[in-house]
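Let us practice reading a record.
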Amino acid sequence: MPNLILRKVKDSDKKYFAKWWRDKTLLKLTSGILKRINDDELDKSFSKILNVKDSYHYMIIVGKTTIGHIALEKRNKGWNETQIIIGDANWRSQGYGVKAINKLIDKAKLMKITKIYLEVRPDNLRAIRAYEKSGFSKVSIKKYPNNKHLPVTIKMVYNKTMLKKIKIPVEVSARHIHLSQADLDKLFGKNYKLKKLRDLSQTGEFVAKEILTGLGLKFRVIGPARKESQIELSQTDAIKLNINADLRLSGDLKNIKNYLEIKGPKGKAKVKVIIAKRHLHCSKEQAKKFGLKNNQKVNVEISGDRGLIFNNIIVRVDASYNLSCHIDTDEANGCGLGKICGCGYLL
């Protein structure tokens, strides 16, 4: 999908409005008022768009093509109404309207605008579903008895809490292994010390240079040494290895029955295998700030073209932790992050 941007309306955009405001098919979908606008009325209405205060008007541009107009207009009691036109029928029903709405919401956040609503035709189910995904909720029915072509609309209000979402880092964990000192000694020799490759986001943790193998797969070692060894796989890895791995929080190894035999330069070790539950690290200060508790389950939204909301993320609070959500490669692929670490929003 080509890149979409919002640009402020300028004088040269008048030609688009002259066409759109006289398109009866488009008017039936938007205002429902089909009376043809004359040149004087066009000039007056367009001048208002250019000069009105406390309202914001943008052209919707995809690639190099102007496809529509979106506005955030001030109403009574601090409310703002968003209105959108996709002028060319060839550009409708392709998701550009929703992308434009999302970009307008981003601008609203920067301007600290928190009370936003829109109106939509009751039979426009595709748009309603899309607006709901963008954070709008249906609140009421509005009637226009004198409007033949649009007698009823559904009023949808943007959830104000969405404007206050907490942005957090999201990190992707590929399969890896944590080792106890006893297993380090078996695999690498007595009193072996891991060699640091780079630090990780959590205090004291690091990626080691050492890589081990088991059943044809490679496992990067993560330091420092732990009380008990564990391997963390994705569900895809487990299927490939034909292992029915338990879904556990990292470190919760009680009654784990699945092991992998790991080979090292000096010997072998049998290591317990789990699929790690997605989780959120945060310090005690961060937990207090955001109202979080240890072992609480929260939701995190990943935005983007393949964005989604992850449920059942376990909060892990410790004085040494830094704010970060950890998901595995299967989950990252599902939301379009791949191997790239990104950001999400705590809901």
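A brief commentary: The domain at 4-160 is CATH 3.40.630.30 (Aminopeptidase).
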